[in-house]
Design goal:
The complex is a heterodimer of chains A (113) and B (111).
Chain A lengths: L3 E3 L3 E4 L5 E7 L5 E8 L3 E8 L6 E2 L6 E7 L2 E6 L8 E8 L8 E2 L3 E5 L1
Chain B lengths: L3 E2 L5 E4 L4 E7 L4 E9 L6 E7 L2 E5 L2 E6 L4 E6 L8 E9 L6 E2 L3 E6 L1
Parallel strand pairs in B: 2-11
Antiparallel strand pairs in B: 1-3, 3-8, 4-5, 4-9, 6-7, 7-8, 9-10, 9-11
The chains are: A mainly beta (113), B mainly beta (111).
Chain lengths: 113, 111
């Protein structure tokens, strides 16, 4: 089974802090993704990466950056956390084939106070 | 207008009922259609994956795609309390990396 592991289940941070969310997958997937999930809005794509050191903006990249130094690891960075970034953050991965479905981690519930 | 529309529910049914969950979409380029199940405080897990139009069956679950109507459905037969979860439809076209999700339907199956 594919395993996508997110380092934290719950995080509480203060406004203005720099926040790192880590994701590791063990299936040698080429593609990795970061989504946020909010009630009524569904899942929205923040950033994705189709290869090491490559990154592409999704639909809502403002206020976020990403890093992919190794194939299995994809990090989401909130440069200066704000209260409107309080959300559930979901990491996903898939094979290179564009028809390959996403496999998700269990999410990180981030609260910014 | 959202690309994918899904009734958020909640939908409450008695154990053993047949459940019908639906999504409509506007982008005719979508070719791959998925259903994910998400339990509370967990990530979405892939339940069904279909390509283009037609039906696909897996145990108690049947996925249907009607591309002419831009409408997809998930049927759950003999529903169980363990089916209580949020069900997300998702779809993508052949050209890109992006998967587009519906907002999810919350399902409660009562024993």
């Amino acid at each position: 089974d594919v395993k996508v592991t997110q380092s934290s289940r719950y995080l509480v941070k203060r406004t203005g802090e720099k926040v790192f969310l880590e994701c590791v997958q063990d299936m040698d997937h080429e593609n990795m993704f970061w989504y946020r999930q909010d009630p009524g809005l569904g899942l929205r794509l923040i950033y994705f990466s189709y290869d090491v050191k490559m990154k592409e903006k999704g639909d809502i990249p403002e206020g976020y950056s990403v890093s992919r130094e190794k194939k299995e690891r994809f990090s989401l960075i909130l440069e200066s956390a704000s209260t409107n970034q309080t959300s559930m953050y979901l990491c996903a991965s898939s094979y290179r084939d564009r028809d390959s479905p996403l496999h998700f981690g269990n999410g990180t519930r981030l609260t910014v106070t | 207008q959202k690309e994918v529309e899904q009734d958020p529910g909640p939908l409450s049914v008695p154990e053993g009922a047949i459940v019908s969950l639906n999504c409509t979409y506007s982008n005719s380029a979508f070719q791959y259609f998925m259903w994910y199940r998400q339990y509370s405080r967990k990530g979405p897990e892939l339940l069904m994956y279909t390509y283009s139009s037609g039906n696909k069956e897996d145990g108690r679950f049947t996925a249907q795609v009607d591309k002419s109507s831009k409408y997809i459905s998930l049927f759950i037969r003999d529903s169980q309390p363990s089916d209580s979860a949020t069900y997300l439809c998702a779809m993508k076209d052949t050209g890109g990396f992006k998967t587009i999700f519906g907002a999810g339907t919350r399902l409660f199956v009562k024993a």
